[in-house]
Amino acid sequence: MKKSSDNVKNEILKLKREKNAVVLAHYYQIPEIQEIADYIGDSLGLSQNAQSTNADLIVFCGVHFMAETAKILNPEKKVLIPDLSAGCSLADSCSPNKFKEFIKNYPGYMVISYINCTAEIKAMSDIICTSSNAIKIVGSLSKEQNIVFVPDKNLGGYINKLTGRNMVLWNGTCEVHDIIQVEQIIRMKKENPDAMLIAHPECQAVILELADYIGSTTGLLKYSINSKAKRFIVATETGILYQMRKSSPEKEFLVVPTDKNCSCNDCTYMKMNTLEKLLNCMRYESPEIKLSTTLIEKAKKPILRMLEISK
Ligand code: 13P
Ligand code: SF4
């Protein structure tokens, strides 16, 4: 028999106390998970929280690369994820074997990897970045330093444009952001001339050029709170709208539809986590993120370098 959602929530809260667990959730998680989380944030905020937590058990409600990052920062702790198959199209676009061959073509180049990649790619990188600190991370290297940026070509192109660099880009994209069509944006802007267009940097360059503000999920949320504007066209995954509407109930947030039949733009991977799966993973302490000590040691260095620069 299916438990009522209140029962499930109460059991999760009880297990959190009993096991001294912390529930970390990304903004793209379903509202019920965001409500029960101890911390909700973007990839940088989640990594910083994972680094500083005193909890014995880390329960990561997000996608695999995010939980993996938490494990790399806490090798001695158990890190759980409600659904182990919650992947990421960007991380999948860059296989370690192909990347190993790719970087052979660029001797002397430094590798900056967007955090949306596997632990194996992180282990081959010099520094990690997220969408909120990418400009700062790239700016921390001398102008003469050649760089390979992996795996998101849209974010990489945006950094190149802003910094005047010519980083070599891996040809990867996020299927949720790359699918957003500029024609839809133009139509929505015409129909809603008073609305601000706010976009995640994983969107295509043609969309970013039209945006009034570009930022990480935390950046987009903060902008929507602080802006005097009353209406926003939001070019990112729909999960963030829950916090936007909660923080600014008087404002209107419009989702960019990805096709005629849908008024949504969901990341199927992020939405794999449910309250029931969260409860089961806390109860049975499974599925757990497991990585070899060697891989953790190698992948940790570039993450710590990012966290140090981001302080
Ligand atoms: P943020 O770091 O901006 O939250 O982005 C994570 C992500 O997966 C975007 O698709
Ligand atoms: Fe990966 Fe895109 Fe989903 Fe973010 S929204 S987790 S980049 S597939």
Structure, explained:
With 311 residues, the chain is an alpha/beta fold. It has 3 domains: 2-88 and 270-290, 3-Layer(aba) Sandwich (Rossmann fold); 90-173 and 299-309, NadA-like (Rossmann fold); 180-255, NadA-like (Rossmann fold, 3-Layer(aba) Sandwich). 45% of the residues lie in helices and 15% in strands. Helix 14 links the parallel strand 11 and strand 12. The site of 1,3-dihydroxyacetonephosphate (13P) has 10 residues, from loops. Residues 63, 88-90, 116, 174-176, 202, 237, 267, 269-270 line the site of iron/sulfur cluster.
What's the domain count?
3
Biggest sheet strand order reads: 2-1-3-4
List the ligand species: 1,3-dihydroxyacetonephosphate, iron/sulfur cluster
Tell me the number of helical segments per DSSP (H or I, 4 or more residues long): 16
Q: Determine the fraction of residues in helical runs and give it as a percent range.
A: 40-55%
Instruction: Indicate the CATH topology of the largest domain.
Output: Rossmann fold
